[in-house]
Amino acid sequence: MTVSSNAEISTSSLSKRDFDVERVRGDFPGLHQMVHEKPLVYLDSAASAQKPQQVIDALSHFYAHDYANIHRGVHELSQRATKAYENARLKVQRFLNAPSEREIIFLRGTTEGINLVAQTYGRANVSEGDEVLITTMEHHSNIVPWQMLCEEKGARLMVGPINDRGELDMDAFEELMGPRTKLVALGHVSNALGTINPVREIIALAHERGIPVLLDGAQAAPHIGLDVVDIDCDFYTISGHKMFGPTGIGALYVRESILEKVPPYQGGGDMISSVSFEKTTYNRLPFRFEAGTPNIAGAVGLGAAIDYLNNLGMESIAAYEEALLDYGTRALLTVPGLRLIGEASHKASVLSFMLEGIHPHDIGTILDQEGIAIRTGHHCAQPVMDRFGVAATARASLALYNTRADIDRLVQALETVRKVFS
Amino acid sequence: MSTDAMRELYQEVILDHSKSPKNFKELADASHQSQGHNPLCGDRLTLYLEVVDGVIRDVGFKGAGCAISTASASMMTEALKGKSEAEVEAIFGAFHDLVTGKVAEADDDVLGKLTVFGGVRDYPVRVKCATLAWHTLRAALKKTEQAVSTE
C-alpha cells in the first residue's frame, strides 16, 4: 500500500505539519453521535463524505448575508454572490492546477460531467465504427453515458481488462487503443476496489496516438493531490459531496483548446451573449456550458471544502490515509475467512471484502447495529462484481477523519458477525 | 449491542435455512416460473411451481441471496405445498403484515413457522429481503412475464 510512491502524488513538498486527526474530527459534527446506542464509526465516505463545520458555516453565511442571483444584477447582493461564485471557480482551478478558470465548468457532479462530455464532445467526434475505450473497474456513471453515445452513433464500447488484484492490464489496454479510438475514459481511483490507476502513463500512451483522455476524479479528489497539467489529461471531473462539500455541485475541467470547439450542452439563460428568434450567439467560456441559475451556494460550499483540504494539505492527508489504509488492510486480514476484493499495489481509501459464507447485506445490518456505517452491494460497479465472481461486497471506505480506533471497532464487530453466523 | 439482540433477527431456524435451504432445486415440469431480483443487494432467485387444479403440488427455487432472503424463500417453499392460490394469498398477507410491523402479534394459525421472521420489522431496509421470494411467487402465479424487482 504505497500510495505516496505513486507518480500522481507530488511527494517533493511533503508537508512537515503533523496531521492532527483529533482536531480534524472535531471539525465534523456529524461524526459525534450515537447510532443504536454506540458511538458512530463512519466508514462510508466513498459513498458520500461528512461535512466539516467550516463548509456548513460557509453555506449558512452565504444564504444569510450574500445571497442573490449571479451575473446579472447591478445591485450589491448580486455582485457579492457573483464574486463568491466566481471565487469558488478560482479555488477549483487552483485545486486541479488548471491553467485557466475558463476551463472550469460547474455542474451537479461527476455523473453530469461525464454526460456533458459524452453529449457534446462525444456526439461531435464519435461516428459509426469508432470506439470509446473504458476499463472493467468503472462506476456505472462512466459506462452508461458512453453506451448511450455508442448506441446512438453505431460506435463500439471497448473495455480494458483488470487482473485478480484489481489492477488494469496495461499491455491489453494499450493494445485496445486503436486507430478508431476517439476517447479513453477511466476512473482515477476505483470506487469499488480502491485502485489508483497509473493515469499519467495511460495518458501518455493515448496522446502518442492522438486520443484524448477523460478522468473520473470522484474518488481521487478527497484523497490525493491533483494536477491536471502534470498528468496532462484533457477532461477531469469531480463531485463536491465526496470531498466534504455539499451535494448537487461538482466541476468539470476541459483543456481550453478542446473546450473552444465543443458545442454547447444545455440551452438557456446565462449561456448566451445575445438571443433573437433568428440567431443566438453563445457566451464565452466557461459560461457557455452553464445554462440557467446554477447551484450558487453549492459552489460556495465546494470552495469552502477546498479551503479546508488545502489548509490540511493534500500531501499530509494522503500520507495519513496511506498509513491508515495499510493498518486497515493488515487488521482485516487477521479476520478468519475474510477475503479482500481489490489488492492493487497503489490504492486509496477502499477496503472491499467478503466474509466466507456470510452475505455482505447481513454483514452490513449487524455492523449497523454496532454503530458502524459501511456500504454493501455492487457499489454501482456491477462489471467489477462480475469480474470477481461475486454479487456484492462489503465496503469500508476511509477518509481523513478516520482513525485506527475505527478500524479496531470494525474488526471487533466482524467478530460479532462471525459469532452470529457461527 | 450484543450477539443476543442480533439473534432476534437471525434466529437459529433462519440461519439453518439460509445455510441449507429446502426445495433448492429446479422443477423439470414447472407449470409456473418467475424471477426475482433485489438490485440493492444483488439477490436473485428463480421460483418454480407445479400447480394442478389450483393447488401447489411442488415448488422449488434457485438463486443466491442474503441469509434473510434465502431463509425466507426456503421456508416459503415448505409452507406452500398443498395450498390453494387463495390460501397462498392469505399467508402472503399475514406475512407481509408481520414483517412490515402492521400487526403487533403474528397470526400463528396462518403463518406457522414463518413467525420467526417477526424480527425483520425492526429492520425496515431488510423487509425487501424477506419478501422477495413472496413477490416472485405472486408474479409466478399471475404468469407475469417480467422479472420482479424490489426497486
Globular, elongated, flat, extended or rod-shaped: what is the shape of chain A? globular
- How many extended strands of chain A? 17
Put simply, the count of helices of chain B is 6
* The level-1 CATH class of chain B: Alpha Beta
Strand content of chain A: 15-25%
Rg of chain B, alpha carbons: 14 Å
How far is the N terminus from the C terminus of chain A? 32 Å
N to C succession of SSEs of chain B: HHEEEHHHHE
Question: Architecture of the largest domain in chain A, according to CATH?
Answer: 3-Layer(aba) Sandwich
Largest interface: A-B, 24 and 23 residues
Structure commentary:
- The complex is a heterodimer of chains A (422) and B (151).
- Chain A is of the alpha/beta class.
- Chain A starts with 20 loop residues before the first helix and ends with a helix.
- Chain A folds into two domains: 3-52 and 313-420, Aspartate Aminotransferase, domain 1; 55-310, 3-Layer(aba) Sandwich (Aspartate Aminotransferase, domain 2), CATH 3.40.640.10.
- Chain A has 14 helices and 17 strands.
- In chain A, β13 (338-341) and β14 form a beta hairpin.
- Chain A has a seven-stranded mixed sheet, with helices on both faces.
- Residues 1-16 of chain A have low confidence and may be disordered.
- Chain B is α+β, with helices and mostly antiparallel strands.
- Chain B has one domain (3-145): Alpha-Beta Complex (Sufe protein. Chain: A).
- Chain B is 42% helix and 19% strand.
- Chain B has helices at residues 3-9, 12-19, 67-80, 85-99, 108-111, 127-141, and strands at residues 32-38, 43-52, 55-64, 148-149.
- In chain B, strands 3-2-1-4 form a four-stranded mixed sheet, covered by helices on one side.
- In chain B, α2 packs across α3 (67-80).
- The radius of gyration of chain B is 14 Å and the shape is globular.
- Chain B starts with a helix and ends with a strand.
- The model of chain B has no long low-confidence stretch (mean pLDDT 91).
